[in-house]
Structures are given as C-alpha cells and as structure tokens.
Q: What sequence folds into this?
C-alpha cells in the first residue's frame, strides 16, 4: 500500500465523503494520517464540522488525523510577493516598474492557479512525515491536468535550460584571450533556478508513479461511468494506473413485502443500478473496491464510521 | 642609432600593424560573431520565457516570472534588440563588415 492515496472522479460524486471516510479509516487503524483537500471549493470542513486552513490542523476527536485545505489563491500571492522582494534586491529601480508589470501579468494567467496548486502538492509530498496522505482532488479534468504537469513542464524547462546553457557557453567562448565574459555558467542564477525547478518536477513525477495510488469515485449512472472510463484511460496513458473504483450513492432496496409507489420506484431504481455496477465490474480493469449506499442525512460524524466500514481498501502500513 | 636598431623598430611597427589588421579583420569579427550568436540564443531563451510580452500566452509564465529579478538588464537589452530588428537579414548582415 502506497503512502499517497488520491481520490478523483466527476464533480459531485462524493469524492470528499469517500476520501474523508478513508482518512477516518486510516486514522482509526492507528496510522498518522493527513487529509489534503485540493478542490478550490473545499468541503472537508463540512464533513468534520470544523474549519481548516492551509496548514495541517488536527481534527477534534481523533488521535492521528490532520486536515489541510490548499488555497491556491494564497500560494499565488505568496509567490508574487517573493519575486517582488527579490526584485527589489536585484534590479535597478529604473526598470523595476517595467518588470513589475510583467510579473503581475504572469500571475493572472490561467495556468497560475494550477501551477501554484501543483507546487503546494509537491511541498506536501516532500515535507509531510505522515504514514498516509489522502488527497481529495478537484473534479476529473483539473486533476488529470495537474498530474500531467510534471512531464509537460519538465520538457519545457529542459528546453529553456538548454537554450540558456548554449548562450552562456557562447558568451564564454567569445571571451577568449583573457577577456571577461558577459555571463558565466558557474553561479548563473538562472541555470540554478531552472535546475531546481526541473528537479522538483522530476521528484513529483517519480513520486506519483512509484508511491501513489489512485482511486476513482463514480455514481451508478451513465454520465459518471463514461467519465470514469475516460479517466481510467488517460491516467493509464500517463503511467498512473487506477487501483480501484468506489461506487457511491447506491439506492437502498426496499423490503420485499413493501408495495407502494415509493417502493416500486426504489425497486426499479435498484435494478438499473445493479446493471450499472455489473457493467463497472465487468468492463473495467480496476476492481470495484466498495459500494456505498445513499444515506438519509449528510455523511458526517458517526455516519462516517459506517461508510468507512464499507470501504474495502486496505490500510496496512507501507512496507 | 645603427641599422639593426632601425630594422628592429620598423619590424615592431609592422608587427603591431599586422596584429591590428588581424584583430580587425579576423579575430574581432570572430568574437563579435560568437557574441552575436550568443545574443541570438539569449533572445530565443527570453522569447521562450516571456512570450506573453508579445501577446502569446505561456503555460509556464508563472515559473519564468521568478527568473525576472535576475534578468533585469538582459530583459531591457532584449526588448531593445527585438524592437530595432528590421529583418533576419539585417541582423545577420550586420555581422559582416562590408
């Protein structure tokens, strides 16, 4: 069992519920657990009836469960401030304004939030000393993009790095005869910075491939199943196999003696859902590890424990 | 001053001239050529870093922005080079001293 466990899936299928239940289960088994919510619309606070922030906060009533909610907005702002501070130290005041504008612009691009989120992801993976880190991810599209970032950005950084090295190398060559080269490779802050970034991406790629397990949450309906099918395929494409499917929101079956409009409706609904679950079991490679029935109330408190018991996902310590 | 001294002085002058001519015609343009090429590479690097300066959105501008503090002077030179370059021919042509 890997140290990092991701729960993904279409929006609204109950990823937060399932990942909270899983974190609850891990904590119950005595593992030091951290639940990380990466969905910008955090809802872990509602499950545990407690507010969380960007730092791991212990959950009331648990010995070994902490929750953190990543806030990309804050990460973007921090990044911006960090650069501006450095700018003041490095650059002559004459051009600061010009560059300031460029930096502001870079932090408004659509990729900025994703990049910030991704950086926080890496921080968490690098720094946490928990036995198990559970990620409650944002809906499928966003997460998939996020997970493909290491490879994609790694390639880009490679290109930048080789260009920079080529130009610095040429500057050094043009300085033959004891002249001072305009730039040198030794101590070039740009090359150092790019290498550092590259190393970061490689770490993320390696960790995701070797130490992470992915579960997808689906509902027993056509749309959710289709999206799950696409997710399984694209994750496999990136060498990130899905370990199992969790089917959430199954309709409870009425007692056999009940005969009424409600009971008939439920019986029909249950039959359809059985069909869907069978489809999931038969046509999908990853096994269905849990089927969770719809609850009357929101899953929180004691109900979380019930749901956790329905999850057939091992929680043993990593070897 | 005897003859050998005058010859030595003459040879020194000739050598200096030759060195100057060699420097002016061969070695200096060679340095310049390499330096221009380095500048071209740097332009490509900066363009890859900051395509949004030309209105092309960049997926990594969030990361390249953190290079800006170190690129202050280069950024300025780069912008100047980009604006006063009429054509590739003009840029490449200026490397030869016709």
A:
């Amino acid at each position: 069992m890997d140290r990092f466990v991701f729960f993904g899936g279409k929006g609204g299928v109950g990823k937060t519920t399932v990942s909270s239940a899983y974190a609850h289960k891990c904590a119950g088994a005595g593992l030091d657990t951290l639940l990380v919510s990466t969905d910008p619309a955090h809802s872990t606070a509602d499950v545990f009836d407690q507010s969380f922030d960007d730092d791991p906060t212990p959950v009331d009533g648990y010995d070994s469960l902490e929750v953190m909610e990543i806030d990309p907005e804050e990460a973007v702002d921090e990044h911006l401030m960090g650069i501006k501070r450095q700018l003041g130290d490095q650059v002559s005041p004459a051009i600061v304004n010009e560059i300031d504008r460029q930096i502001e612009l870079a932090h408004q691009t659509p990729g900025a939030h994703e990049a910030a989120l991704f950086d926080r992801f890496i921080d968490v993976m690098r720094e946490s000393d928990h036995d198990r880190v559970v990620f409650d991810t944002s809906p499928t599209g966003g997460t998939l993009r996020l997970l493909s970032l290491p490879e994609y950005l790694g390639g880009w950084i490679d290109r930048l790095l080789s260009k920079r090295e080529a130009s610095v190398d040429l500057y050094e060559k043009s300085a033959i005869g004891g002249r001072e080269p305009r730039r040198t490779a030794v101590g070039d802050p740009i090359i150092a910075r790019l290498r550092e970034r590259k190393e970061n991406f490689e770490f993320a790629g390696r960790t995701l491939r070797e130490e992470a397990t992915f579960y997808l949450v689906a509902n027993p309906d056509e749309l959710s199943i289709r999206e799950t099918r696409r997710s399984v395929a694209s994750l496999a494409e990136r060498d990130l196999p899905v370990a199992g499917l969790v089917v959430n929101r199954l309709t409870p079956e009425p007692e056999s003696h009940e005969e009424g409009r409600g009971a008939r409706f439920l019986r029909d609904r249950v039959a359809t859902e059985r069909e869907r679950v069978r489809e999931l079991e038969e046509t999908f490679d990853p096994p269905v590890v849990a089927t969770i029935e719809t609850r009357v109330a929101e899953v929180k408190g004691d109900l979380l424990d019930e749901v956790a018991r329905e999850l057939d996902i091992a929680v043993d310590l990593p070897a | 001053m005897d003859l050998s001294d005058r010859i030595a002085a003459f040879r020194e002058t000739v050598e200096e001239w030759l060195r100057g001519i060699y420097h002016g015609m061969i070695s200096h343009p060679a340095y310049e050529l390499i330096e221009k090429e380095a500048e071209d590479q740097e332009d490509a690097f900066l363009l890859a870093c900051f395509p949004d300066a030309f209105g092309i959105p960049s997926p990594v501008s969030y990361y390249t922005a953190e290079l800006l503090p170190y690129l202050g002077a280069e950024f300025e030179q780069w912008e100047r080079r980009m604006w006063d370059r009429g054509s590739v021919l003009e840029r490449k042509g200026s490397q030869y001293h016709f």
Summary: DSSP finds ten helices and eight strands in chain A. The beta strands of chain A are 4-9, 33-37, 57-58, 65-69, 132-136, 212-218, 242-250, 288-293.
